[in-house]
Amino acid sequence: xxxxxxxxxxxxxxxxxxxxxxxxxxxxxxxxxxxxxxxxxxxxxxxxxxxxxxxxxxxxxxxxxxxxxxxxxxxxxxxxxxxxxxxxxxxxxxxxxxxxxxxxxxxxxxxxxxxxxxxxxxxxxxxxxxxxxxxxxxxxxxxxxxxxxxxxxxxxxxxxxxxxxxxxxxxxxxxxxxxxxxxxxxx
Length: 187
Description:
three-stranded parallel beta sheet, alpha/beta, four-stranded mixed beta sheet, 7 helices
């Protein structure tokens, strides 16, 4: 299953609530070439790799889709050994990907894709400011413009769209659970 949406829309909060209700939900740990932050552990937050390791995993077929992050020379990609292991364990794997990753999972694994929308751009702005109160106005406007583009150009690709209303997280989670039940997921 895929959960996507603009940064700050609440994909992580939705996933955490799903996991709390259904322990068989697991987040797909992806690979990256960025350096770990202070509290991040390898194989928990990401599979941290240097550029050479990342390229070797691509050549082996272990990273079938990847992209570089905005404004950085950092790569992120699906790490197939992680995915295969979790599927073999009978877990419901939740990947939080961009449009390229969503297309890959939809085509290769017939994944249900859900796009999370904010209830308003003003509330999305507030969420960004709460996460990073020191963000420069110019950077905030770039993030919001990118979010608008994602919503305008990419949201229609997804099987379902769910609005995560401000302070109504449980409503969005309940809607996702109903979607998954109708799609045949064994919760």
